[in-house]
Amino acid sequence: MRSLEPAHEEAMSVAAELSRRDGVVDPAPRCLSLFALIREDIACVRLRDPAARSEIETLLTYPGVHAVIWHRLAHSLWRRDWKFSARLLSWLSRFLTNVDIHPGATVGRRFFIDHGAGVVIGETAEVGNDVTLYHGVTLGGTTWSPGRRHPTLEDGVVVGAGAKILGPITVSSGARVGANSVVVKDTPSGVTVVGIPAKTVHPESDRRKLAGRIDLDHHRMPDPVGEAISILMDRIEFLEARLAHVQKRLRNGNHHEDEDDNDAAAALAAATAKHERRLR
Asked: Which of 7, 135, 142, 200 could be a cystine partner for 115, CB 3.0 to 4.6 Å?
């Protein structure tokens, strides 16, 4: 792909910076032609999918890429107020790709839908640059009221398979949504969220840093429920050891500890140490 003119690059960087300051998703720049946007959509696949071998293979065999191309054409018609033609083209895209993107949705540059099947993106959704969605993702609305009803995904967001992001909320730049999570509140920048409803489990400081590439290890998610149960089990063990120690002392009438009492004290000390390590 030919590089852009320096003046165009400078204009794009200034526009992106202004958008970031205003908290607005930077849509596909007007200075890029539709053909240039589509070439970027195809080229970015090899950076995010190891199975992609060539651009021609990507163009011919990736339904997620086909869906994005169809959407860019339909969105172009939508912006020209050819609503029916845009909806008809969007329906054809859904029929061919099993990806439902409303022609009114705003999609940024280098947008990649992996596998594609079952993805739904609503009319007022906004998707930033370098966003990756996996199959089964829904960007849905939660109200009948007109106006903004769907989520905003800022630059660099990765959404795992089957995740649902609902309502006029914002998933901030660099955030990752775990598979099958349900996001109903704004998500801070650079964090990982999982669960129903989704909660933050990894701050940005704990995330891997991959220069120039997107971290696709979205399967490496913690188990907050399992961790909570493990802490509760440790606490129960600690309390049982403490209760046994108190019972021994009461049976002995507060006299000197015998051998069994020493065993109870040792068990209490071990349980206490284990509990303290878990809390750290």
From this structure: 135
- pLDDT tens-place string over residues 66-78: 999 999 999 999 9
C-alpha radius of gyration, the chain, whole number: 26
Integer CA distances (angstroms), 13 to 16, 85, 89, 171, in order = 5, 33, 32, 22
User: Among the residues of the chain, which ranges form H helices?
Assistant: 6-22, 34-43, 45-48, 55-61, 63-79, 83-97, 224-251, 259-279
Give the closest residue to 106 by CA, choosing from 130, 81, 76, 140.
76
With 60 as the cut, is the pLDDT of residue 27 above it? no
CA nearest 32: which of 77, 71, 2, 53?
2
Q: Tally the residues of the chain.
A: 280
User: pTM of this prediction?
Assistant: 0.65
Q: What distance in Å separates the CA atoms of residue 171 and residue 191, rounded to the nearest whole number?
A: 10
Q: HSE of 262 in the Cβ direction (CA atoms, 13 Å)?
A: 4
Please state, in angstroms and rounded to a whole number, the distance separating the CA atoms of residues 13 and 4.
12
Phi then psi for residue 160, to 5 deg, are: -70, 165
> Helix, strand, or coil here: 200?
strand
Q: Which helix (H) or strand (E) holds 194?
A: strand 192-194
C-beta atoms surrounding 243 within 10 Å: 12
How many CB atoms within 10 Å of residue 195? 17
* % pLDDT > 70, the chain: 70
